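Field notebook, page 296. I keep forgetting to write these up properly, so this time I am using the form the group agreed on. The chain and the ligand, flavin mononucleotide, are recorded exactly as supplied. Prediction of the bound pose follows.
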Amino acid sequence: MSALLEMLGCRHPIIQGPIAALNEPKFVAAVSEAGAFGMLALGFSNKEDAKRLVAGVRALTAKPFGANLMVMNQENPKILEVLAEAGVKTVTTSAGSPKALYPHIHALGMKGLHVLLSLNTAVKAVEAGADGVIVSGSESGGLRSLGSESSTMVLVPLVADAVKVPIVAAGGIADRRGYRAALALGAQGVQIGTRLIATEESPAPAIWKEAILKCGDGGTVLLNLGGMNMRVIQNPKLEKEMKDPAVTLSERYNLFNAPKGWLAGDTDLFPAGAGQVAALIRDIKPVRDVIEEFMA
Ligand SMILES: Cc1cc2nc3c(=O)[nH]c(=O)nc-3n(C[C@H](O)[C@H](O)[C@H](O)COP(=O)(O)O)c2cc1C
């Protein structure tokens, strides 16, 4: 058994990409029940939210699941206690230096994998105590930095040459070809986001799932939100705005409207989120079928 599978305690080395807008216990439990590692996105949560969500997942599955914490959230120590009480053994950390967080994680007997977007931050995360790293390439869905970034194909082997802890590849993986490629690059597992949005159990509205199915090659763009970028599916209105010097995109679109826009299917409020890999997704299917196809 790989060190990653030992850490996760599940059957398949596939981690659900946490997506705050889709934080539904039923969805997370479906991923765990399929043998992968279900994940709650607790980056913006307080202790009470965490308690409710964790209890919700626990009521639906006895299988292992985890949670993602954003390092700047002041509630993290309390959230970690809630997770430990519920028997959660592994968390992921993201968005900043995890140095202050790992002593709390380890004191509770838990392990953590830090999400990162560059080689430099991978090395620092391991020095800060991360037990593993989730290496997120530029093609990934979700928030990205404003800087120049490497793709999964480049970043995973770079990190594999530099650190000794288990590596999980994230970004651009939607089927067993991507899964096997990630293993060949030096990862022990993968984290998948966009592929799971387009599943039957995903609470994303039909309009968001359809936008992923319709998204073709080159169909996503990085939307500049000021201090960071979000990868979204291009639409005619956004395309015009991107070319219009009178429009400042970071004023026009607000990150805090993303969950509302996505859940309402209102691309005027916020364009649909997805990774480049949307171009490879052609059907909505049960979570179990996605995971089984990866492992076939
Ligand atoms: C629409 C969207 C929203 C996301 N929101 C979050 C989030 O709230 N927290 C987080 O840690 N990662 C978030 N991610 C990143 C995913 O967890 C995952 O790492 C990523 O989707 C992997 O790339 P892929 O989409 O190519 O599979 C988001 C991804 C997408 C597509």
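OBSERVATIONS:
- The chain has a mean pLDDT of 97.
- The first strand starts at residue 14 and ends at 16.
FOLLOW-UP: compare against the apo run.
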